[in-house]
Structures are given as structure tokens and as C-alpha cells.
Amino acid sequence: MGVCHEENPMNKTDLIARIAEETGRTKTDSESFLNSLIGQVTQALAAGESVVLPGFGTFEVRARAARTGRNPQTGATIEIAAAKVPAFKPGAGLKKGVSGG
């Protein structure tokens, strides 16, 4: 699956402005809402919980196994420790919206 690299991706400030415009709230209120959402998702993931937003997707924590890697500068073999990483699985509604369906 390829990755689309656009020249001007939407950033947090752009998203806040769009939320404010669509909801009729101030940018300050919209920023507060967005920061709260990000904080709550982060806290849930840190506690090992998933966050399910029907139609949008699921934020979850996945275990990444320990593995052997290579230092790109020296070529030396290194051991990379196991880790827990955040992941997002898009829901059907998001997939349909992106594909234009």
C-alpha cells in the first residue's frame, strides 16, 4: 500500500479552524476540545485500553516483538527491544469516505 505525500497536509491549527467554522464555536473552544480528545485517547492507550469511534476507527496499542536491526551508519547488528506502539485501524465509514464511496 503506497503512502500519499501531499505538499500541504492539514496541521493542528487548520483542523482547529475547520472545527470552529463547522460548529460555530470559537477557535479557543475548538482547540480545547481537540486537546482534550487527544489527551483522553493518549491516557486510554497508556492504560492499555482501546478507543473505538464507530464509523471512524479504533485507536489501540499493539505489541512489537523484539528484533535484530542494523545501525545504518556503522552496519553493526543491534538488538531492538520489544515495545508497545500506538496504532489506528480505520473504520468502514472512514474507508468509504476516503475512497469516494
From TrEMBL:
CDD domains: HU. GO terms for molecular function: DNA binding; structural constituent of chromatin. SMART domains: BHL. GO terms for biological process: chromosome condensation. Keywords: DNA condensation, DNA-binding. Pfam families: Bac_DNA_binding. The keyword DNA-binding applies. InterPro entries: Hist_DNA-bd, Histone-like_DNA-bd_CS, IHF-like_DNA-bd_dom_sf. SUPFAM superfamilies: IHF-like DNA-binding proteins. Histone-like DNA-binding protein which is capable of wrapping DNA to stabilize it, and thus to prevent its denaturation under extreme environmental conditions. Belongs to the bacterial histone-like protein family. This is HU family DNA-binding protein.
